[in-house]
Amino acid sequence: MKVVFVPLLFSIIFAVMLYPFCLRFEKIGFSKGLASFVAVFITTIFLILLAYLIFRQLSIFFQQIPQLSEKTNKIIENMQQYASQNLRMKKTTFADNLKVQITELPNLAARMLGNSLPLITGVLIEIFLIPLYVFFLLYYRHFFLEFFYKIFPDSEKVLIDETLEKLEVVIKGYILGQFLDILIIGTVNTLVLYFLGIGYTIILGFGVAFLCIVPYLGMIVGSVIVVFVAVLTTNTTWQPLTAFSVLWFIHIIDSNIVAPNVIGSKISINPLVAIFILFLFGELWGLAGLFLAFPLAAVLKVIFDTIPGLKPYGFLLGEPQKYHLKKYSLLHIKRMQHIQEMKEHIPINEVLPGQPGADPLPGGNETI
Fold it and tell me: Could you tell me the pTM of the whole model?
């Protein structure tokens, strides 16, 4: 169902993001259909230009793969010589095989590009399909609102409106917050790598910022990639080490200061659940699943917190409270549960026979 659900879920997220712009266009005199079309058209052009810049950087990288593979082979040869001369280690076939594989990188990149043509075709289809979905979601938004009124006839319309508003706030808050965080940290990373003289600064800077969406693992993978590229594109040892140290320093500041202020107040999901849902949706839908994991988890949390029978699951998705992390947290939890049970308990002497909570009389259905 990936082909069906992924474009639709992306369209819902984009529609929520573009809804305020549609309202502004309508306030200045645009019709609902024209406002929806203009908002979708401007956003599509912006995303196409952004994709062009990314693919431009990637094409430059692929063109320089032969030079990078030659430099990698020289580094391996130098390591072999150092190990044999200073550490008295024998040469193994592993290094030779590794050099052969690196030499084949240009051919491997060409084969990967050929095998990815079906994927590129699917992406192009979604590029035209998602804007169409977004347009109709914005244009028919009141039609879908009445659908929710009809599907939940026993619920108060105020509760439905409040739930939809909470979903809108959560989606917009997370997406906008994450976008601002990637923009800020990606720009800082790019400037740092540029002044350190490391190649492919835009791809690496924003790539590391994007990988940091994945808690803990993202920065580890990103920093390893940066060090590898820095070794290939520089001739010193201080540049890769400095890049590694500075990027981790930026990441620590981002995790403790920037991200909590930009994203933290919009969404509250504990790290264990975050890692689980990232791997779950990554296995289900690949790269698209990584994009959709957190927004869908946030939507589920709002729904779980609204429906009484599902509130425990909303509690499980959220962040633990401070008392959960204390030394005697178990005693505190049991005490809270006991107090809650005492509040719900009704003393027998306060209940009259025949009332709810009273014990049945010895005569069966007889009443006084």
Answer: 0.68
